[in-house]
Every structure is written in C-alpha cells, then in structure tokens.
Amino acid sequence: MLLSELDGFVTGVIVSPEPIPPSDWLPRIWNGGEPPFETDGEAERFVALVMRHHDDTVASLGRPGEYVPLLDTDPRDGESLWELWIEGFALALKLAPKGWNRLRASEDAVAKAALDGIVTLVAVANRTMSLDETGLIAAHDDVGVFLANWVQLLHEWRLENDRRPSEGKIGRNDRCPCGSGKKYKKCCGLN
C-alpha cells in the first residue's frame, strides 16, 4: 500500500460502525500474506508506525475540523490524487459490511449521505462513474474537503451509535476495548 491508500484504509477502519481489531486489518496492508519484513524488529517497527498513524488519526477526528486526508498531488498539474485514498477506504468498507448496513438502515440522513458520497467516489475511482456524473464537485481539488467532512460525520455517527457491550467503567490505564492494545486514555479515550 502506498501512504495515501494506507491513510484511507486506516481512516476507514477507525470510522467503521463495527470495531475491527488490528489482527483483522493489519495483515490487509500487505495483502493478507506473510509480512514482507526480513526481521521481527522491522515488522514491529512498521506495525508501531502504523498504529501511531492510527492513533494520530483518532486524535485528529476527536477535534472536529482538524482531520485532513493524506492525498498525493499530481506534480504535473497540482491536482489532488484522491483515488488511492478512496481505494484504501473501500478496502476497509469490506471488512465490516454489517456495520455499514446498520448505518444505511439508520434514520440519520446526514451520515447516510456521507457514506453515499464516499461510495460514489469509490465508483468514480473504479471507473464505473465519472466525476462529472456525480453532481458532487466540478474539480478534483474539492475532493479532499468533501472527504474530510464525510469522514468526520461518519466518525461522529460511530461514536453516537457505538454498539459494543459495556464492560463497566473503563479505567484510563486499562487496555482499550477496541483491540488496539493501547491504553484507553491513549486510544479511544481521547474522544
């Protein structure tokens, strides 16, 4: 995965209506096969960097207006290359279809519109629809703004509709129930 695709993927995992444990999503980064590392130390460093990016993304989503997707820019014309990011997010969508179906069945028109916007961009990236056909935007430059807003809305919906069973009060220094392995105060407790 390239960095922009990884950012979309990690963001999709974070805003998923159903929790996706790292043991399910981390192997997808290297296509589910054996990690391409020569040593355990390399693998540990890579996973630590990915988890730090995950945690930084969670933190930015916890501060509305701060999240910005990592999009590459075409050096020839300066246009935003959002397609890789959306491909990563699309991969995350496939990991928790029941959760996304729950969002679609909800009465929250705003969250459903955010998801529909992302799904539409997936169709554009897959060339089953053109950007002009969507009626969303006229220029690629606006896509990053739309993505940031849609992701923020999906994150807020997830927080408001979290269906994980309560295990009683979670202590600040307890492991986070999302499965990240981090302390609660450094993970979901940031929100």
Distance between the termini: 28 Å
Q: Which fold name corresponds to the CATH topology?
A: Four Helix Bundle (Hemerythrin (Met), subunit A)
Helical run tally: 8
Q: Categorize the overall geometry.
A: globular
Your description of this structure?
The protein has 191 residues and is an all-alpha fold. The chain has one domain: Four Helix Bundle (Hemerythrin (Met), subunit A) (Up-down Bundle). The chain is built from eight helices and two strands, in the order αααββααααα. It has helices spanning 3-15, 22-25, 40-61, 83-93, 97-105, 109-125, 131-134, 143-160; strands spanning 72-73, 80-81. A two-stranded antiparallel ribbon has the order 1-2.
State the gist of this model.
This protein has 191 residues and is mainly alpha-helical. Helices cover 51% and strands 2% of the residues.
List the helices and strands and how they pair.
Blueprint: H1 3-15, H2 22-25, H3 40-61, E1 72-73, E2 80-81, H4 83-93, H5 97-105, H6 109-125, H7 131-134, H8 143-160
Antiparallel strand pairs: 1-2
Helix pairs in contact: 1-3, 1-4, 1-8, 4-6, 6-8
Task: List the main descriptive attributes of the protein structure presented here.
2% strand, 191 residues, Four Helix Bundle (Hemerythrin (Met), subunit A), two-stranded antiparallel ribbon, mainly alpha
